[in-house]
Write a structure and sequence with these properties.
The structure is a single chain. By secondary structure, the protein is an alpha/beta fold. Helix 11 (296-309) runs parallel beside helix 12. The strands form four sheets. Strands 2-1-3-4-5 form a five-stranded parallel β-sheet, sandwiched between helices. It has helices at 12-27, 53-69, 80-90, 107-110, 149-153, 161-173, 199-207, 227-234, 252-258, 264-277, 296-309, 336-359, and strands at residues 3-8, 31-32, 43-48, 74-79, 97-99, 131-138, 157-158, 178-183, 214-217, 242-244, 282-289, 313-318, 365-373, 378-383, 388-392, 401-409, 414-420. It starts with a strand and ends with a strand. The longest helix has 24 residues, at 336-359. It folds into four domains: 3-110, 3-Layer(aba) Sandwich (Rossmann fold), CATH 3.40.50.12160; 122-240, Transcription Regulator spoIIAA (2-Layer Sandwich); 242-360, Transcription Regulator spoIIAA (2-Layer Sandwich); 365-420, OB fold (Dihydrolipoamide Acetyltransferase, E2P).
Length: 421
């Protein structure tokens, strides 16, 4: 039996793309292995990320480790790192096949499969998960100064509304109770279609599918969201009260250098509207620390923004100058030690913001999608506003919604008690 194993690095879109590859390989007669296979005819597929310099390093380390473990198996490397720096990957001994993003659907054929293989553009399940990612858009037209994504993913492309709904129906029919609607630049969905479709229209069309499930909107950029859109989304009952809206900096001058098309005041109007229209909403964000030329005062504007907005989670990234982007040529870099110091300071502020958010939720009850069993009879799942909860309960609750009272807040999760289910 031919076996395959997929190792995925990077974002939710990459995880979706790996599921497409998984279903393609199974359709070509391969059996998936949880462990790295090492026999002749076996295949190891590595789906890479190149969003930061740290991502590149992690990809290189992973590839070299899996090459050492491959035995007689074939190693295939695909994803954004391949499109971003294929020449660097050609220098790594042991990679048998490099596949660019636009060739992913051909992997089975490139491996020599002679039979019919469907070039899938939709998934039917999501391996080992209670929630499933649903990619409705790919690519980006923004070209922010620091970002390689438009160069490796291409221009924005949207799935047709009917195809999105059909795919969602197929996933839900397989028992999933949460769809995470995602894309590389999700807020631009529908702008490239012959008949323009707004984001709330596609979300509404998914929500209209019969059944009990919820819809989580993945990362959405502030340049694509306004109070009117937020209000319309709030009227779609299945939308989770959780928004990930990347800020990147709380300083207007830095935002301008980054090529971000908004000011901090614009961002505040958006987050104020989110809080107005969604009860108990959680807002998470991304912040880049140490962008070239960022002064101490400008950094502190980012820290101040975290306090003012009250984020439930802040993903902090050290600035990474990416070759080929506008930011790579900027003068006045921030010293690495100072970037590290600022990250530690911002991390402390962000942790307090997250804890304060959690404290306000203690002694409230929430519907939790139960995802897995941990030690003993401890179950774990997430609230609609994406807070992890651990609580005692029967295995029969896995894959269902349970009403859980939140009793104690920890930095990364809540302790809860089942009320009803």
């Amino acid at each position: 039996m031919k076996r395959f194993h997929i190792h995925t690095l990077g974002c939710k879109v990459n995880q979706y793309d790996s599921q497409l590859i998984r279903e393609q390989m199974i359709g070509a007669g391969y059996l998936e292995s949880d462990h790295v296979p090492n026999q002749r005819h076996d295949v190891i597929i590595i789906n890479t990320c190149t969003v930061t310099g740290r991502s590149d390093q992690k990809c290189r380390t992973t590839i070299k480790r899996l090459v050492r473990e491959k035995g007689a198996a074939t190693v295939v490397v695909t994803g954004c790192f391949v499109d971003g720096d294929i020449e660097q990957l050609k220098k790594i001994d042991g990679i048998d096949l490099l596949v660019k993003n636009d060739e992913r659907q051909q992997i089975a054929k490139l491996l020599g499969h002679q039979g019919e293989v469907s070039e899938l553009n939709a998934i039917t399940s999501f391996d080992g998960r209670t929630r499933a990612f649903l990619k409705i858009q790919d690519g980006c037209n923004e070209f922010c100064a620091y970002c390689k994504v438009p160069y490796v993913r291409g221009r924005s492309r949207s799935k047709l509304l009917g195809h999105v709904v059909d795919e969602a129906k197929g996933i839900l029919a397989n028992g999933y109770r949460e769809l995470v609607v995602t894309g590389i630049h999700l807020g631009s969905y529908g702008h490239d279609l012959r008949e323009v479709v707004a984001l709330d229209e596609v979300i509404g069309a998914i929500a209209a599918i019969p059944g009990k499930f919820r819809i989580r909107i993945s990362s959405i950029e502030p340049m694509n969201i306004d109070p009117a859109l937020i209000k319309r989304l709030s009227q779609i009952g299945k939308v989770c009260p959780h928004f990930h809206i990347p800020l990147q900096s709380g300083d207007d001058a830095v935002l301008k250098l980054m090529g971000r098309r908004y000011a901090y005041a614009d961002y505040r109007r958006i987050t104020d509207a989110v809080k107005e229209y969604f009860d108990g909403v959680a807002i998470s964000t991304d912040i880049i620390v140490g962008f070239s030329g960022e002064t101490a005062a400008q950094f502190h504007n980012s820290a101040k923004a975290v306090c003012e907005i009250g984020f439930s989670k802040v993903h902090i990234f050290p600035f990474s100058a990416r070759a080929g982007t506008r930011a790579a040529g900027l003068a006045d870099p921030v010293p690495p030690k100072e970037i590290t110091r600022r990250i530690e300071e911002l991390d402390s502020v962000a942790e307090e913001s997250a804890l304060e958010f959690k404290r306000r939720m203690v002694d409230t009850a929430h519907e939790v999608l139960v995802e897995e069993k941990k030690r003993g009879n401890t179950l774990q799942g997430y609230t609609g506003n994406y807070q992890r909860v651990s609580f005692g309960g029967d295995d029969a609750l896995i894959g269902t919604f349970a009403k859980v009272a939140l009793k104690k807040a920890h930095p990364e999760y809540f302790e809860g008690l089942v009320v009803t289910h």
